[in-house]
Amino acid sequence: MTSPLSAKFLPELLSRLTDENITIIIEDPTYVDSWLQFFSNVNQIGLVVLLLVFSPIMSKEYEKGTLVHMVTKGLPRLSIYMGKLILLFSSWTLLYWLSALITLIYTNYYFPKSSLEGVLIATVSMYLFGLMLMALLLSVAVILRTSFGTLLTVGAFVGLLYLGELFPLIQKWSPLQLNSRNVEWLAGKEIGRELIQSFAVTGLLILLFIGIGAVFFRRKTIN
């Protein structure tokens, strides 16, 4: 709810806070500014909070020994792993699309001339990026026994993605494009081959992280 509100009223608030001798020229806000706030909030708050909340998803199980009871009672390890994965994916899906829907409603209310062009591809892109981080989180959480180590590894992975932006060849295939170029597509930038490449790489990474986590969980000592 704060994304459209801040986009709509921030220029007015700034004009009231500045001194009469200071002139600040701010363009009239548009629906693009509202979505810019949305993507910024998801990046800086939404994803970070979700990763913090779910970082102990396996470490608590290892610590309390609950996994041993599940396995000894005949519950397949793959079922346990997939249950955790479904929990992560469904939480991200529900919270993300609920936020996007609220943003869409309020954006259309405050900016009646707003357009839906580019909104779908921009929101789906960030959603897929979030799925990749959730898959990575669970995979690392299976291998490591501490929530801190899990968060550190996920943070290091994102840091490597930003480092890869320095190299044009890596940048064209980087999943980070799905998380950083959303506003460009909203502003009318043509969807190019790089986006398709990023989608493909991100999808493969999701499957890779899920597979690695499943293999390690099947072989890992849980007592």
Give the helix/strand layout.
Blueprint: H1 2-17, H2 31-54, H3 59-64, H4 66-72, H5 77-110, H6 119-143, H7 147-164, H8 168-173, H9 177-180, H10 182-186, H11 193-219
Structure description:
With 223 residues, the protein is mostly helical. 77% of the residues lie in helices and 0% in strands. It has eleven helices and no strands. It has helices at residues 2-17, 31-54, 59-64, 66-72, 77-110, 119-143, 147-164, 168-173, 177-180, 182-186, 193-219. The N and C termini lie far apart (45 Å). The model has no long low-confidence stretch (mean pLDDT 85).
Task: Give the overall average pLDDT.
Answer: 85
Helix content: over 70%
Class from helix and strand fractions = mainly alpha
Helical segment count: 11
In this structure, how is the largest beta sheet organized? none
Count all strands and give the number.
Answer: 0
Strand content is: under 5%
* Rg over CA atoms: 21 Å
pLDDT < 50 runs, ≥5 residues: none
Could you state the order of secondary-structure elements as H and E?
Answer: HHHHHHHHHHH
Shape: elongated
> End-to-end span in angstroms?
45 Å
